[in-house]
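Researcher: I'm preparing a figure for a lab meeting and need a structural model of a single chain. I don't have an experimental structure, so a prediction will have to do for now. The sequence is pasted below. Please return the structure as tokens so I can convert it later.
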Amino acid sequence: MENNIFQIILNYVWFIIKLLFYALILAIPLTLITLPLRNWFLKINKKIENFLFSSSIITYVISYLLLLAFYFIPIINSGSFQTTDKLLIFILIHIVRLAIINLLITAIIIIFIFIILFIYEKFNKNSKQFNFFNLWKSTAIGLIIFFIIIILFPKLIAMLIYLIFV
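Model: Understood. Here is the structure written out token by token.
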């Protein structure tokens, strides 16, 4: 009996260690992606002067391009369409459908961007200069929060995949 409880506790501790490790590793490329996008954001933000709208535009464009690539590359490579008319109609319908679905995906991503920015501001409150290490820590903590939400609501990812591919 005691061995079984110890094993359960050990499994939970191991799960938490893996969660932290994966969040720290995944935060590296996400933080590196933000470096070139930071300049693009600053240019758009100067023109629009609205932080929420600027970040929403950038997030929408990037996630839409990724969504289109993940959706259409396997379909076009399969060559299952005999005529170009059917392929063109199929692509046009799904471009509009994916644009609408991407609004939901962008809203979810923006929530996590604000969580990460809030944590970054707490880490970087004494300095006004950009700090890569603080951004990396903030991204890792934001990913941990994201993983916890996915653990609590496992059907969220399944619903998004269903919306995208059905």
